Amino acid sequence: MAGRSKPRVEVRRSGRRRRTVSAYREGEKIVVLVPDNLTAPEERAWVTKMVARVERKELRTAAPRGWDDDALAERARELSDAYLGGLAVPESVRWVANQRSRWGSCTPRDRTIRLSERLQRMPEWVIDYVLVHELAHLIEPHHDEKFWGWVAHYPAAEKAKGYLAGWSDASRLPRPPSEEIFPAGDAVD
Known about the structure:
This protein is α/β, with parallel strands linked by helices. It is 38% helix and 17% strand. It contains five helices and six strands; from the N terminus they run βββααβββααα. The chain has helices at residues 40-61, 69-83, 124-136, 145-151, 157-170; strands at residues 8-14, 22-26, 29-35, 92-96, 104-107, 112-116. A three-stranded mixed β-sheet has the order 1-3-2, with helices on one face. A three-stranded mixed β-sheet has the order 4-6-5. α3 (124-136) packs antiparallel against α4 (145-151) and α3 (124-136) packs across α5. The chain is elongated, with a radius of gyration of 22 Å. The protein starts with 7 loop residues before the first strand and ends in a 19-residue tail after the last helix. The model is unreliable at 182-189 (pLDDT under 50).
C-alpha cells in the first residue's frame, strides 16, 4: 500500500475556547481549534493527536477498498501461487452484496468464488485469509483435515479467524457456521 502524505494543517486559536480542542477536515487541510492559552509544546502535542484522530476517522469511514473484481481475481491468483502451489485456479472471483451470514463462498463445480462486500473495509490480511480459505475449496471441497491443512499454509490464518470472530461478536451478528471458519473441534462458541 502506498504511504500517505502529511496533511496540510491550520491551527486556529480562540480566546473564547478555554479547555476543549477539536479538529475537522476542511477541503485539503485539517483545521485544529485550540484555546489561545496553550504553550507552543502543548499546541504541537494537541495538533499531532487531533490530526491522527481525524485521519483514523477518515480511514474507518472511507469508501470500501477500491479493488474491482479483476483486481480481486488477480489477488486470488497471487495467493494461490504463494500458499497453495498455484493449484487453486478460480474461473471468477467477485464481490457480492447478498452474503449476510458468510464471509465468502466457493462453488468448486464451476470454480467461482464470491466474497462478501463487508470484507472491503477489513485489513488486507483478513481478506487474503478469506480468499485462501475459498481457494482451498477448489483443491478440497469439504471442511476436512486436508482442507484445513491447505488453509494453514497462510501464515495469518489463525489471527484472521480470531479477527473475523471478534468482528462478528462486536457487531452483535451471528458468526458464520463454525465449520466455515474453524476446523472441527476448534470452533469458538
